[in-house]
Structures are given as C-alpha cells and as structure tokens.
C-alpha cells in the first residue's frame, strides 16, 4: 500500500522534478480532481439518489439538460469558487463565464469544463465523464471577461478528463505526457495507475456516428468508405467500429489501445463547423491526444491552432492514431 502514488504525491513530485508545475496550478488540479470525485459519487449512486432523468431545463446550446448535468456543473462551480487559483470559469452548460465572487480570493487561471459529457448515456448506465481545460488569464487581469478565454488551445497549461465507468479514472496532462489515476473508492483517493499513456500510431479501429453518413462531406465519405471496404479496399486491411456516444469513453479507449474518433461537419447545418465544442471538448482532448503521441485536427488544421471567436464555438474533430488522422486530414487538404 505504501508504494501507491496518490494524485497529491504525484503532483508534488512533478512540481519538484520538472519545476514546470507551479504550486497554484497544482492546487487547482487538486480541486478539480476533488470535484470529479464528488461527481463520480453522484453518478455512481444513480437512481438510489434520485439523480437520473431530465432536469426539465435547457442549456445555452438549446440542449435538454439532465439532472446530473446540472448537479455536475454546480459541484465544479462550488468546489472551484473558493480555491483562490481562478479568475473565472466557463462551462458548456452556462451562457456566460462565471466570475469568482468579489469576497473570494482570486488567481490567474481560467477554467473551462464540460461537466458531464455524454449525458445522453446516463439513464442507460453507460460511461459518461467530465472534461476540463486550463488557460492563464492575460497578465495582470484580475477580472477576466469572455474575451480573455478566446485563446488558441496551444495556450492550455493543463487539461484532463474523468471517466465514470466500470472504473472511475482521471487522465491528466500539463504538457509533460499523460498520466492516468484510478479512484480507490474505499480510500477516496485517485491513485496513479497509468504512466506515460500513449496512442499507438497505427490502428484497425474507428469511431463515428454512421447514421449521419449521408450528411458528410466528400473527404469523410471517401475515408470511411475505404475503412468499410476493408482488406479488399485501397487500405488493404479490415477495420472494426465502435461508437459509445460519450467522447470521454471514446478518447479513453483510443488512449488505451489506439483508434480514430471522428465527429465531422454536417451538411444539415452548413453554418456549424461541427457538433462538439472547441473550448470544452476539442481543445482539452486534442492536448491530451497530442501529449500521448496522437494527432487532433478539424480536417484542415491542428485543433489547438484555432483561435476561437466565441466561448461556445463548435469544431469538427478527427483525433487519435497518427497514421489515420493524417490520412483523413490529407483527404480534406487535397
Ligand atoms: P454532450 O456534451 O451534450 O454530451 O454532447 C457531446 C457528445 C459526445 O460525448 C459524443 O461524442 C457525441 O455527443 C455523441 O453524439 P451523437 O448523439 O450524435 O452520437
Ligand atoms: Mg460534451
């Protein structure tokens, strides 16, 4: 038991060894991890705590909220409000950024989150998760506004996700590789179980919502057509398909055994670049996947190079094993 490395010990050692993890960022990550533990607890209780089902409200994206979407959002806001390391928070579930109240201590970081990703899966007991991303507010700005959040993903100083599944896991990066922690429910602590997580460069597995096929653009039609053609097609091998409809579960599978995840642009709404959100889903997952040796593009460019125009901006997503993401990106580019 004594050889176990808790999240706290891991972060303190990272701070000491690399010097690249400032103490206030370490404390912020600990606070987010504590909130994820509380969310895991609510998700795991399910019907026993009366938390399943719809909240009867809608979010800024016009999507129906689940009770657990609201609970997870409140847990993250409450836990992080008094931590002293943040200037403001932004959430997929809230129209505007949430400033740290006047009477609370403030810090230099900006936190963005999707409190409960894949929430359409809650009621059917399939994995869901929390995704988060951390930026630094422009220097000296103690009262950050929406404009301060609009930084390219390459400026992220940390990102991570928690997946609430058969095991509750927390996966983190702050730019020095990707580390995975498993929640020990008896001890109530995140324990380091996965060091230097890497995405294999090649894969035989893809993830896309095939029911949207007729709405995709030509490069995606071509690429997925080749995957489906298998051994007899130009790629010369058979591919397998998975679709959980929880991005966290999808990314976790890819970071564990490889694969490509795609949520492309859809012809039904030509003005919308994609379904997923750049700040809460695209950027944090891109940071993690790149740190694990994979690629993440919107078909044309690196996701983390996109300079956002709005907090709730959408993005097309192609991420995972290098070889496959490069191929489908190449089909878009030329
Ligand atoms: P959410 O944040 O509202 O849960 O939506 C994002 C989710 C992703 O987790 C998942 O990849 C996608 O939506 C599933 O979409 P679809 O319903 O088209 O399969
Ligand atoms: Mg989401």
From TrEMBL:
UniProt binding sites for Mg(2+) 1: 92, 114, 116
Spans through the membrane: none
Family statement drawn from the similarity comment of this UniProt entry: Belongs to the FBPase class 1 family.
Gene3D superfamilies recorded: 3.40.190.80, Fructose-1,6-Bisphosphatase, subunit A, domain 1
Encoding gene (name): fbp
Keyword Magnesium among record annotations: yes
UniProt GO MF annotations: fructose 1,6-bisphosphate 1-phosphatase activity
Domain Fructose-1-6-bisphosphatase class 1 C-terminal: 200-332
Reactions it catalyzes: beta-D-fructose 1,6-bisphosphate + H2O = beta-D-fructose 6-phosphate + phosphate
Free-text cofactor note: Binds 2 magnesium ions per subunit.
A Pfam family reported for this protein in Swiss-Prot or TrEMBL: FBPase
Protein name (database record): Fructose-1,6-bisphosphatase class 1
Cofactors, names only: Mg(2+)
Chain residues that bind substrate: 117-120, 209, 275
Domain Fructose-1-6-bisphosphatase class I N-terminal intervals: 6-194
Primary location: cytoplasm
EC number: 3.1.3.11
InterPro entries, per the entry: FBPase_C_dom, FBPase_class-1, FBPase_N, FBPtase
Classification via CDD domains: FBPase
Record's subcellular location: Cytoplasm
Known partners and oligomeric status: Homotetramer.
Pathway: Carbohydrate biosynthesis
